[in-house]
Amino acid sequence: VSLQLWVQQYAKSPSVFPLKPCCGTQDSSISIGCLASGYLPQTLSIKWNAGAIQDGIMNFPPISNGDLYTSSSQLTISASDWKNKPYSCTVEHLNKTIEKQGRVVILKPSMYLFGPHAEELKEANDSYKTLICLIKGLFPKDIYIQWKDRESPISEDKYKILNSEPLLYNGNLYIMVSMLTIPSENWTENHTYSCHSYHWSGTRSEYIVDNINCLGINVFILGPTVEDLLVNKIAPLTCLASNLPSSTGYKFTWLQEGGGNLPFTTEDPTLNENGTYSVASVCSTTIDAWDKGTKYTCTLTYTGITSPFIKIISKGTEDNMSPPIVALFPPTSEEESSKEYVTYTCMASNFYPIDIYIGWSQDNQEIHKSLYVNSDPTWEVENASYFIVSKLKVPYEDWKENKAVSCVVGHKALPLHFIQRTIDKTTGKPTKTFVNIYMSDSNLSYHVLFHLSSLAQVTKVQNSCESHFMYKDCMHKTY
């Protein structure tokens, strides 16, 4: 009895933290760890994958920090297993079990390479020019950047290289910038510069040839969204060019790996606020070809530039997929009292990869996108997954009349790819249904924000009859 009273009064459960290895090592094996800290009494056990792993484990004795203890366990595995297999550590203390998922989710970063800014090129007395390599959306943050000139590594003894520390943005994803300063004369002497990133997700490379970007032209390629693939049953690919000095002189071509040229349509150019033009080229492939990882190449040529812009895209891998957990919440009592508008909230959590669709319907009629707001997916390190929130506001009379409202979530890891939650005023509790959905209205809206030499925001609006692009120069805005 006295022991039970002591436990009730003084015992403290541990905080558990999974520890990842540092990247950059070329070794074939790596070590990961599990840390349990701030607990009492001293007796505690740490297991890997619920005890299924017995080899390669080193358990360290508890260390006292005042009245509390800290323990750790180290597991040595092969580098390939760390990249491809899930791991978890389980801590048992008194009658409590704490498990931390070590599912290895490694996010491949996007990478953009920019030549000297147009204003920098105008500075005749400036003997140096700056190339910028932007790496965004990486996790974990450990990454190594290398610059090359004509495929030869550039040392910091020769040219100045400045790498920022990876910084958190968009939840728990990381972003960083690497800058290379070169002599001005090198920019016009047929040098081929490239930026290479070495990350757990693999190696990425971007190339820029002598003065290919002297006009400040930027080209990006986008794959289909999850809404395209699951709802609209199409697989469009989009090539975006911005900061064009003229509305003419450009030409797009599309190639499919192993299949030759692809048919495409090119939108009319749009005039930006800074006097430059933007234009988009769109081609369609099959969902089956996209899912198989086929590579697609968009090439842009422009009058006065000898080398073309070449962008390649393919579907990434989808290891460790996790379906979303969907919760639908009714309006608050305060909103009901106001008798004006009420808000439904739909939250999808614990999903991976990031691509997800959220839509709403009322009495089985689709609700237009303009009537609800979806947040951007946010990365949660703790669960190695994403979450997203959607809010729908409807007139109080609709709630009063007991109209059923449904939140529809689409994700590749779900059975039938869709799940639907429905709620009405009478029940006040959502019901769950897995659905096979087809929506004929392909009203599509999404936003792509790029950090260019000058920032440019690209908004795509596409419907079943027509599509157009609106561009807004954001050079003087801060995000």
Automatic annotation (TrEMBL):
The keyword Repeat appears for this protein: no
InterPro entries: Ig-like_dom, Ig-like_dom_sf, Ig-like_fold, Ig_C1-set, Immune_Resp_Modulators
Domain (Ig-like) ranges: 14-105, 109-213, 237-314, 324-424
Coiled coil spans: none
PROSITE patterns the record matches: IG_LIKE
Keyword check for Transferase: no
Any matching Pfam family: C1-set
Keyword annotations of the record: Immunoglobulin domain
TM stretches of this protein: none
Protein name (record): Ig-like domain-containing protein
Originating species: Leptobrachium leishanense (Leishan spiny toad)
Taxonomic lineage from the root: Eukaryota, Metazoa, Chordata, Craniata, Vertebrata
